[in-house]
Structures are given as C-alpha cells and as structure tokens.
Amino acid sequence: MKPAPRLLSVATALPPHRFDQEETLAVARSVFAHRLRDFERLAPVFANTGIRTRHAACPIDWYLEPHGWGERAAVFERVALDLLEDAASKALALAGLRPADVDAIVCATTTGIATPSLEALLLDRMGFRPDTVRLPVFGLGCAGGALGLSRAADLARAMPGRMVLFLVVELCTLSHRPEAATPTNVVASALFADGAAAALLRLPSDGGVPGGPRVLDGAEHTWPGTRRIMGWRIEEEGFGVVFSQDIPRLIRERLVPVVDDFLDRRGMARSGLAGLVCHPGGAKVLQAMEEVLAPATAGMEDSWTVLRHCGNMSAASVMFVLERRLQAEASGPHLMLALGPGFTAALTLLDL
Questions:
Q1: Contact criterion met (CB below 8 Å) for 308 and 326
Q2: If exposure means fewest CB atoms within 10 Å of the residue's CB, which of 169, 215, 251, 297 is most exposed?
Q3: Per residue in 166-222, pLDDT tens?
Q4: For 40-70, what is each residue's pLDDT tens digit?
C-alpha cells in the first residue's frame, strides 16, 4: 500500500445565518407557491429531508429577490474567503502551526468561481508564504471533500516532510433562484446549505511514524452513461441545479461492486471496516447507503447528525462527518464515501 500521510487536524466553519426548516419552507412557499401549481405536492420534501437547521451565506431576505452572476460571484468570494480563513485558522491552531509552516494548499469548490482562485487570495490575507504550492480543484461537486482529501494526500506523498493544507468550501444556497419556479429548485431549497472545512496533512520524510489518523488510499469510479445525473446548468442568472431522482436507485444497484472492488484490491472487505464517513446528501441517499454498505454502518449516525443540523453542504459535508468521528475518538479503518457529478463515486480509505 502507498505511504500514508498523517492527518494532523480537521476543522470546520459555518456562516452566521442560521435557518430552521420550518422558516425555510415558509419562505419557499412565499416565493414559489403562486407560480408553481404543484408546490403543495412538493412541500413535504422539506420535512422528509431529515434537515432541521442549516446555515447560509446571506440573510434569509436575500433569497427572496433575483440576483445576477456578478452579485452572486461577489458574495461567493467574500463569504467563501471568510469561511476558509476561519476553518484554516482553527486547523492550524489545533496542529500548533502557523500559516508560514504550510508548503502546499489544495482548495476544492464547485459552487462559485474566483480568479485568482480562493487559496491565492488567502496567501496575503493569512500570511502564507509566497512560494506556497497551490492546487485549486473545481467541478467535483459533492465528491469534492473525499476526492479533494485524496488529492491533498497524493500531494503530501509527493512532498515528504512538507505540510499540505486541504481546504473545501461550498456556498450551495447561492444557487437559489426565486425566478426559477421548478420542482428541482424547490427540492434544492429544501436541501442546500453552506459551510467550509480544512485539514492538515504531512508524510514524515525521515521514516518516523507519528501518531494520528492516516489517509491510506483513494479512488474514484465514474459510471458510463450517467453524465446528466448531477451537476450545474450554466444559465443567465447563475448556476441551475441538476440532480436526478434516480440517485438512491443507482446507489442500491451499482455502488456495492465498486466499493467491494476498491477494498478487495487493498486486501480488505466491508466486514473489516470499523466504520464509514459518508457524505450526507439527503435522507434517501443515506438510507440507501446504510442498506448496501452493511454490516459496516458505524459512523452513519454522524452523517445523520450533520444532515440534521447543517443540511447538504455539498463537498464540505463529509469533512464535518470526519470531524465528528475524530471527536468521538473513533478508530480503525474507515471508508470515506461521497457521490458527485460524473456520476462519480469518491472513495478514500482512512485509518483513524
């Protein structure tokens, strides 16, 4: 097996605006009900998501009015940088490090665009070195937490002894479009939330084996013929969400062989896993994962808790689940799993 970088710390950050699901339903009803004949038929999705509260980049009144690309981009850059600075500062403090100790930064996002990219904008703001290696990663969607952590681990393997900072931020609520009265937009309003996370990784260069969780390996599998299952449409006002009701069915029909092959090639089986770190994409997604990944269901309660209190924060969500597993002092081999546009399964094997 590959050399395994150590996780020195994991930290998360949430924006200040917090909505409960009843409040969100009331706002959605005021925005969509008079323009979407089937709104009341769709309304139960707000209760069925499993979400009680979520955090958002803007006050709730912001979501009542239309906003163009320029305004959305400005909000994305401002709030994303604030959240990344918060998460990165926490991760550095937990590891007893300073920004100048970081040698490389991997930054994943899919819900907004900034050029220079977000981690470049953080260099002066936080005091990272001018020679910091940067790797912005765009387009992985909900898979970006698991795949981004794997990419950061690959970079740490290629730079023994160097400190790698993994950042992920998603502001999913900025895709809310009050003028787009469609069933998909209503479901997105019931699910989407905002958040960020950071993790520090390092592969010892001297052969030493310090304590701490290890990132053992990672892989991905993109199923043929599934490119339109999940993603964005690029429209005049901003991103238009794309996701299919077939996702839970695809999990039940296609995920197990991919997981079992990934584990088998590493001399493992699902029965040998101590637990899971699953992206909480929604209640139906988590229910399907629990069914097919048994008997390895330890850790699913953390995914349900993150969904309940934070909603679906796309790529950032799985890092919130990992943070909870570490805080609970979980140990042993864990499979981090998320599904994203492609349609792609992201798998990262951890030893906590």
A1: no
A2: 297
A3: 999 999 999 988 887 788 888 888 999 999 999 999 998 765 555 789 999 999 999
A4: 998 898 999 999 999 999 999 999 888 988 9
User: At 149, is the secondary structure helix, strand, or coil?
Assistant: helix
Q: Which of 58, 107, 142, 172 is catalytic?
A: 142
Q: Count of residues for the chain?
A: 352
CA-to-CA distance for 341 and 230, rounded, in angstroms?
Answer: 5
Tokens of residue 259, six digits: 């997981």
Does the pTM exceed 0.85?
yes
Q: Judging by DSSP bridges, how do beta strands 104-109 and 163-171 pair with one another?
A: parallel
What's the angle, vertex CA 277, arms to CA 342 and CA 20, rounded to 5?
Answer: 85
Give the residue carrying structure tokens 């500062």.
Answer: 89
CATH fold of the domain at 214-351: Peroxisomal Thiolase; Chain A, domain 1 (3.40.47)
**Phi, psi (rounded to 5 degrees) for 26:** -60, -40
Give the CATH H-level superfamily of domain 6-202. Answer: Thiolase/Chalcone synthase (3.40.47.10)
**Which uninterrupted H or E stretch holds 10?**
strand 6-13
Q: Strands 333-340, 275-278: parallel, antiparallel or unpaired by DSSP?
A: parallel
Residue-range domain boundaries for the chain: 6-202, 214-351
Calpha distance 306→313 (Å, rounded): 9
Contact 168, 145 (CB under 8 A): yes
Cα dihedral sign, 139-214-297-193: negative
58 catalytic? Reply is no
Sign of the CA dihedral running 320, 325, 331, 334: negative
Q: What is the DSSP string of 88-138?
A: HHHHHHHHT--GGG--EEEEEESS---SS-HHHHHHHHHT--TT-EEEEEE
CA 125/CA 307 separation, integer angstroms = 31
